[in-house]
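Case study 2.
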Amino acid sequence: MNFPFYIARRYLFSKKSTHVINVISGIAAAGVAVATTALVVVLSGFNGFTDLVASFFTTFDPQLKVVPAEGKSAPADDELLLQVKQLPEVDIAMECVEDQALAVYEDKQAMVTVKGVEDSFDELTSIRSLLYGDGSYDLHAANLQYGIIGIRLAQDLGTGARWHDYMHIYAPQREGQISMTNLSEGFVSDSLLSPGVVFQMKQSRYDNGYIITSIDFARNLFSLQGELSALELRMKPDADISKVKRKIEKIVGGKYKVMDRYELQADTFKIMQVEKLFAYVFLTFILLVACFNIVGSLSMLIIDKKDDVQTLRNIGATDRQIQKIFLFEGRMISMAGAVVGVVVGLLLCWLQQTFGLVRLGDSSGSYVVDAYPISVHPWDIVLIFVTVILVGWIAVWYPVRVISKNKLKEKRQ
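Prediction:
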């Protein structure tokens, strides 16, 4: 058995001559446990919000999206894109045309993103589950073109779920210059009818400014006949998205970019990751301060056990072994705090997930979810545990080494 560890374990659980040492040791362990619990709960809270946002995006965004590396459009009959469509892992491949335009309804107007899609869009995404109104999911019928708009855009334009007049859409000409004497010649205009429904993503980017319509309407509006802005893909259920992504990247080379759902919303997720990193660093500093309580406890323990130290030296223990005793003591206190903190943190996360103890607001339906979302990621728990052990080791190593060394010199003198 490791001699310093054995003695340290005995010291940890034995009664001290001064009761306050036990109290301070308990407070030190409790401080580490509280800081560890905070790390588990806060990081799991960030994970919960990240997963919640991802769940909204995945309702609308494709699993993979192939876009031109340069420019806004590419030929729809490009051989590279045809190879991608024919991959055995691809279940649905849909062409898409998307760009900015101006929407005008009666006396109101708004800048919008017109997304022209094929009829398979409702199979590629879960758009039908996002629709509200007394109409149906229709993008075109005969020569009529329909537009499904976001619920906030409908409020801004005053259309409601169904509008009874044409909504006029204007987009700049792709070629030529706009004449200041006749601005109308510099724009392509077309009109949309209402299918009687709007969609609600509960994400301002989509609800405030998106119009979903047929790809023929978008190609005509943006003068992109025979072209596409993106090729959106849904994989078969047994396909590995990451492997298919790498496979497609090899096919298209540098001509196209292949993006998954997280890359499509890279700005949002990067912000959330930075916030999570700052929270982790901030709580780690709090943990470091809590670990300094262990130094105070060990300092008093060294003084309390000065007679035992002399006895240990008499039976052959070296100064290095005696220093290790108190180092092990500090590490065991931080380890105990880490274990208790992780267990309590996981318990609080489970209670929040199960019962929603901390709620977002009093009025039901005002928020996307009623209670703060929590998602425990195993690697975060591993990171937290390793962080606590390392911070505890760093916090006690140098102070304990100096204190024990000075006390040993005093005893010899």
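Residues 310 and 411 are 8 Å apart (CA to CA).
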